[in-house]
Amino acid sequence: MVAVVNSFKGGDGSCVRAKHECKCHSVPLRSQEVYVTLCQLSRVRYPALVVTRAEHRHRTLLALSDAATATFEEFGPQASIEQVAERAGMARRTVYRWVETRDDLVFIHPRLWLEHFDEAIAEVTDRPMRERVLHGIRRVSEVIDSDPERVIRAMTVAMENPELMRGYATVNQAWIDRISAEVHQDPTTRHERLRARVLGAAIMGAIDAALVEWIATEPRPLLVDLVDEGLEHLAPILDVK
User: Are residues 135 and 227 in the same domain?
Assistant: First the structure.
């Protein structure tokens, strides 16, 4: 999807102008490179990009998740993709650009969390496996704690409607595969592959248990604390101290 930026601001908050007006105003952006090239052509020192493609994708997926959650809350598991699309202000075909099935709609948040996990892992690539994994999981927990209500509503919809849990199976397996890949980044033996899958599933189980406890507990604790507590139970196999 193409991100459209209506205006760009300078350091003082005003639109950037020069002898030749910047041609970047109201230009559909397919990449930052397009934006930079246009600014260079108009001989304007380009400001920071206001909306990157990644940010546009993130916002669109969150808006779609919100629409899906509200629709399933209102109509239950019988809610159609057309109803979600209408609430989100999208065409049905556009929704399918972002998700493969209707059931995936209530599990958009876990998909986005994988991106936060990867970003965190990239910060600590030189550390041992257990430290990398814990750093990534804690980052995701902090992201959830920063905006908990969206996540709670979506997860409540999923847990109350077993018909939608096929989407959970898909995203859960994606998480297990990602964590397993971090446990053994290049497994060459059956033993290493099995160990990676077992530990990946165990860590994901601890995260799931922490999420369920987090939703059920009042007053609600910080998720990051529950995740830390859950992972402590895996200390004998992860050597977590």
Answer: yes
| In a shared domain, residues 36 and 133 | no
In a domain, 86, yes or no: no
Q: Which residues of the chain form beta strands (DSSP E)? A: 3-5, 27-29
Q: 185: domain range?
A: 102-238
pLDDT by residue (tens digit) across 188-204?
A: 899 999 999 999 999 99
Structural domains counted in the chain? 2
Residue 175 has pLDDT above 50, yes or no: yes
Residue 15 has pLDDT above 80, yes or no: no
Give the residue-averaged pLDDT of 226-239: 87
In degrees, to the nearest 5, what angle opens at C-alpha 166 toward C-alphas 163 and 169?
140
Does residue 59 contact residue 144 with C-beta atoms inside 8 Å?
Answer: no
In a shared domain, residues 45 and 132: no
Rounded Cα distance between 223 and 214, Å, is: 6
Q: Is the pLDDT of residue 22 over 60?
A: no
In terms of domains, do 202 and 111 share one? yes
Residues facing 3 on adjacent strands: 29
Structure pTM? 0.74
9 pairs with which residues across the strands? 15
